Amino acid sequence: MTRMSEPISPPLPVRVEHANGIAVVTIDNPPVNALAQAVRVELLRVFQGLKDDAEAKGIVLIGAGRDFVAGADIREMEAPLEPSLPEVILAMEACRQPIVAAISGNALGGGFELALACDRRLATAGATVGLPEVKLGIIPGAGGTQRLPRLVGVAKAIALIAAGRRVGAKEAAALGMVDRLVEGDLLAAAKAEAAQAGKRRLSEMAVPAADAGEVEKAAVEAARSARGVPSVGKAVEMVRLSATTDFAAAVRTERATFVTLRDSAEAKALRHLFFAERNAQKVPGVGGVKARPIERVAVIGGGTMGSGIAVALADAGLTIALVERDGPAIEGARTRIGATYDRVVAGGRLTRAAADERIGRVTLGADWAAIAGTDLVIEAVFEEMDVKLEVFRRLDELARPGAVLATNTSYLDINRIARATKRPQDVVGLHFFSPANVMRLLEIVRGEATAPDVLATGFALARRLGKVAVVAGVCEGFIGNRIFSAYRAQMENLVEDGAWPEDVDRALEAYGFAMGPFAVFDLAGLDIAWAGRKRRAATRDPRERYVAVADRICEMGRFGRKTGRGWYLYPEGAKKPVPDPEVHALIEAEAAAKGIKRRKVTDAEIVGRALAAMVNTAAQILAEGIALRASDIDLVLANGYGFPAFRGGPLFAADARGLPAVLAEVEAMHRAAGFGSEPAALLVELAKSGSRFADWDAGRNR
Ligand code: 3HC
Ligand code: NAI
How far apart are the C-alpha atoms of 22 and 2, rounded to whole Å? Predict the structure, then answer.
């Protein structure tokens, strides 16, 4: 028997259709079927109705469009509305008919929790499932921490939930997260399943007996990777509860924990970055513009960056021609690429065969003819203008018309580089971060002539590489390096004024940075920055405060970790940088020579000064139009420079602290550093008018 659709008017986000004793419940809330309030209201009504519907013998739950359900509506988390998702799930569990989840695309967070509340889960081969809540500073809040361990065991559930891992369908089926994969018509398969399946509520199932050692191992690994995000520890605690507490009590505890975390500062910060990442892709004049197709890519220069970029491209399935200067340089690049893949294989993240296939897609040589057929060229040669200009003149001669010509320069003027060609519209900066195959950030630097479809191509490439792209204008250092330089200078000032490098690093690591700046300088190598300072010495404004400690350290042949000595000592076998009395003496001597009486610097002052330096330069960058939005700057610092994500980036953190307080810190910085550290006009204006960077963005995004 076939019944007509219920008379639900089209805009409603949930539809029910009955056919042959099966009720098909379709969630239709574009673009990703997020569980907004209107969806929950309708789902609750629909399942409460189906409970007493004698004609419906089975129920299928499916998403319209590409996805099943991408999760709770993250926008609603600032002001939650009734009914809650657990109420919807209670109504589902009250149904006496079997409910089959038909999963295509994404079933994430609350979406996967809906699927877990069903009696069966079928998925297409392209589906992705998981509980990524910890990435938003929360935990699953609708039974996920209790139902998943009943399917996969406590240890595995800890590993999956604490990492917020998204799992492809094949692995999900192997783990038992979905019952089986469906080829062909998903809905038909789900209907057939619903017609013959019995009830199997996970809430009524026992948690499989766990190996205490494995659970402990998973918990330790989770704690190690938590990086100061409190939700990870809570997630582990909740999953462990599943083995000791009855289901109903455990889900109540889970919900209460979820609500507390949802309202926490960390979760708000991570939500800010979630939307920042999506907003960054909305660039005026580029929306709707088609990207140029990219399959074959050339990389010029196979040093640290060129090799890393080649690996990133190979990982994304592209074919790469890497051009180096000569035989030894080619061998150097080959070794670097090989060593990178050796590490990935040794870490168990890739099979040897898969690594070899990727390596096989990188052709190395010294012959520029390899460029002729490529769609995109990424230049990563030495950071010297003359070398870059020569490379771009040659590219102009050899690249096919319409090929995108990109430079990975860190600081240089992209407009000048573009003018070396007769096609400046095709030239763009693609600024990767080291190691390029690992770091998520890509700055797309827009020259004055860069064509909109070239920018769109940059964004499309970033998406393909799984990177976060932010557009930047041309200036020395673009967004990230310009802010980092200002921050570096102010941290060196503080060292001269009284802090030791290890004080600065400790304070900023306690704030949430994975590594303090001096440890980072040592890791990156001090010689490159030294060469840059020597190059700029002639043009440096003499009124600028200049701290020469780093120069003195380099003059002693101490270039950081690679030479065993830099700001710190790195004795054989030491796990951590070791503070060095010799460097202390050097700092004291430099301070004394300038007549500086070193004083006590507190951790709070260090953190405040670091934030002041970043925010002040960021405000200049915003006013100059180098960055389009404050949230773009937050993305850059959080994804490229180790700024703790759970603090939302420097401008989000500044808003949270209050801009008048940040301005006061900038004024103190100005008093200490003098010329060049004046408070930025935009910061003064926002602070004095009681406004925030978020308000500035809201005005722009309208
Ligand atoms: N809530 C609100 N909006 C969402 C959303 C969500 N859960 N997921 C995606 N969106 C929005 C995006 O902001 C974007 O909006 P815009 O077009 O206005 O910028 C639009 O949907 C499309 O998103 P993407 O650009 O990210 O599209 P992609 O196709 O690249 O990716 C996706 C799709 C993989 C689903 C990705 O959007 C994603 O990862 N979403 C978040 C998934 C998630 O974290 N879910 C858990 C939420 S927390 C939860 O469920 C709590 C529960 O336990 C109670
Ligand atoms: P590198 O010195 O490790 O590598 C440069 C490579 O370019 C060398 O292997 C050299 O043989 C090759 N090369 C030089 N001239 C060439 C030419 N005419 N043709 C072909 N190959 C040539 O330098 P690195 O660190 O990889 O930097 C490259 C670029 O990337 C620079 O512009 C740098 O500013 C930028 N960059 C560097 C980052 C880093 O952390 N090292 C981060 C982001 C950007």
Answer: 9
pLDDT at 80: 85
Alpha-carbon 660 to chain mean position: 30
Instruction: State CA 553 to chain mean position distance.
Output: 34
Q: Is 170 in contact with 181 (CB distance < 8 Å)? A: yes
Farthest CA pair distance, the chain: 94
CA distance 365 to 76: 54
d(CA 321, CA 363): 5
Nearest CA to ligand 1 atom 39: 70
CA 289, 294, 299, 304 torsion-angle sign: positive
Residue stretches of the chain with pLDDT short of 50: 1-2
* Structure tokens belonging to residue 639: 């994804």
CB of 324 sitting under 6 A from ligand 2: yes
CA–CA gap between residue 627 and residue 116 (Å, rounded) = 43
pLDDT tens profile 382-430: 999 999 999 999 999 999 999 999 999 999 999 999 999 999 999 999 9
Catalytic residues: 113, 133
Position in ligand 1 atom list of the atom nearest CA 279: 19
Question: What are the structure tokens assigned to 607, written together?
Answer: 């953190």
Half-sphere exposure of 369 (CA within 13 A, CB side): 1
Ligand 2 center from residue 299 Cα (angstroms): 11
DSSP state of 384: -
Instruction: Please state, in angstroms and rounded to a whole number, the distance separating the CA atoms of residues 621 and 626.
Output: 5
What is residue 8's predicted lDDT score, i.e. its pLDDT? Answer: 52
- φ/ψ of 352, rounded to 5, equals -60, -40
Q: Which residues are paired to 130 by β-bridges?
A: 108, 166
Segment 204-230, tens digit of pLDDT: 999 999 899 999 999 999 999 887 788
Distance between CA atoms of residues 676 and 661, nearest Å: 20
The pLDDT value recorded for residue 2 is: 46
Q: What are phi and psi of 322, to 5 degrees?
A: -105, 125
Q: Quote the CA–CA distance of 295 and 263 in Å, as a whole number.
A: 44
Query: Is the Cβ–Cβ distance between 63 and 104 less than 8 Å?
Result: yes
Separation between Cα atoms, residue 687 and residue 647, nearest integer Å: 20
Q: Which pLDDT value is given to residue 3? A: 54
Q: In this structure, are residues 443 and 415 in contact, taking their beta carbons and an 8 Å threshold?
A: no
Apex 137 CA angle, 212 and 164, nearest 5: 50
The bound ligand whose nearest atom lies closest to the alpha carbon of 417 is: 2
405 vs 400: CA distance, rounded Å: 10
For every residue of 205-227, DSSP letters joined together read SPPPP--HHHHHHHHHHHHHH-T
85 in contact with ligand 1, CB cutoff 6 A: yes
**pTM check: above 0.90:** yes
Q: For residues 519 and 508, give the distance between their C-alpha atoms in angstroms, rounded to a whole number.
A: 11
Q: Which sign does the torsion angle of CA 604, 515, 439, 528 carry?
A: positive
Which two structure tokens, joined as six digits, stand for 651?
């401008």
